[in-house]
Design brief:
Elements lengths: L1 H4 L4 E4 L19 E4 L99 H5 L4 E5 L5 H7 E8 L5 E9 L1 E3 L1 H5 L2 E4 L6 H4 L3 E3 L6 E3 L6 E4 L15
Length: 249
Amino acid sequence: ECSLHFTFGGYCTLEPVSQKCRRKLCKPYPPCWCCPNQIPPPVPSPVAAPQPVPSPVAAPAPIPSPVPAPPHVPSPVPIPPPVPTPVPAPPPVLSPPPPSCPPPSCPPPSCPTTPTTPSSIPPPTPTPPVCPNSDCCRATYLEGGSCTLTSTLTKPEKKKWCSSSKQCLTKIGTFDPKCVCCKNCKPRMGCKEMKGKCVDPATVNWAYFNFVCCYYDDTAKCLARKGSDCACCKKPNGGQGGHNKPPHC
């Protein structure tokens, strides 16, 4: 670089010999300098002039031998990182095409329809058993009774309210072992003191008892089975009661 920088060439030296010397052209540039070679003076054209008195010619300055440049050490070439081999993507899983629906049997707009699997159909809800609606319990318990499923009764409830032998009749006249006759009302002390009777207004035989009046809203006088309403009714005392549902006392 030093020899190509100047027109007539240059050389590297440790100290600058002129103001034209430059740094950073010789390695190592501190402390080396690049100085130009000595340029010979131009040859003057012949001019008619008086001969000058020759002056003593100064001896030329010794030209220092050029300092050889240090060998060029090539910079290490960076090794590129290895390029990873691209992994081919797995082929896409194609879903089967939807089933075609023939025009005659396709109900628009739900075509094509998805076939219904047996597991998606909910099982039918079993119908709970129901006791027959017969009048046999009203004949067994004149103050009011009803057919009740034995599976819904506990042993204490069955002993307290229900008959141990009376079963309910079905529509074809046979006894149903799953159902039993149970009374709906029992008197408490308040109704007993009035010499009344506790009845179920929904199932009582009004014509049999012939009551004068009833306490329909006084639940403290009667004990009702679960799901029933009871009323304490008064028998006639010297008078004649009605054969229909009596009024409120």
